[in-house]
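User: Before I run my own analysis I want an independent prediction to cross-check against. Here's the chain; please return only the structure tokens and, at the end, one sentence I can use as a sanity check.
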Amino acid sequence: MNYRSIDDMNHCMAANLAKVPAGTDLIVGVPRSGLLAANLLALHLNLPFTDVEGFVEGRILQSGSRLKNYMKPFEAYKQVLVIEDSVWSGQSIEEVKEKLVGLYPDKQIVYTAVFIAPEAVDKVDFYFDVCPGPRIFEWNMMHHELLENCCVDIDGVLCKDPTEEQNDDGPLYEEFLTNVDSHLVPSKTIGCLVTNRLEKYRPQTEAWLARHNIKYKELVMLNLPSKAARLKANNHGGFKASVYIKNDYWLFIESSEWQARQIANLAGKSVYCVDSRKMIYPDAVGKTRGNIRKFLRKALNLF
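Assistant: Structure tokens:
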């Protein structure tokens, strides 16, 4: 799994500012993620920026007082850079090109993307970096179709973790399960929810997920009778890794970094840690283990 963070995006552009054509005087972001890239790049270059619709209508986003001395009438901008965060199929950037073609004959428009798939390099005039698939980005992870190929934890990801007092395996815990506020609410369907919540709390968990309109294909819970049995088993990361191993999911999204490392090493696959906001990769042993499983799975599918 190829992961890129907002920090990766920023560093990638900052390290490659020389790629921006000389004389560029206006940055245009392709909504929605392209606006993030446009804003960062405009800050690095001390240039004004706008979105595609604003550009079509001849509007530029307002700037602070520091940039006001550099602002010009819209008609005076001649070297325009249109930027996307990433290009894969090229459909969105092609739609923008169609919208802008012939609109301003007096302006030179150049198209770029921060991250581009190897097969799409001809869709833009230049790019900042190549990022092959499968790939996932920090800024749209919970709102991408790829989520259907992911395992996702509940506590610490979709909602906060219970406190020690709330986690009593009794009335306080049931109240927590019923009324805890949502944290990250995905707009796409999750492939598999994997949680160390006990199976006996499935009704409360399913009701909470339905109330917050969180869609998922499968919910896997720990089939032990009590919190005491769960603590005795002491296999929090191992349980999650077993589900990740058994299914051909691309990524596990976990809150705890120590569990994320355990899951990654046991499963031999990447885990994204919400708490530290970084991708955790398996160590050498875990990677070898994962490669062997991939090989065996492919071999079995041949028969």
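Sanity check: Residues 284-301 form the longest helix (18 residues).
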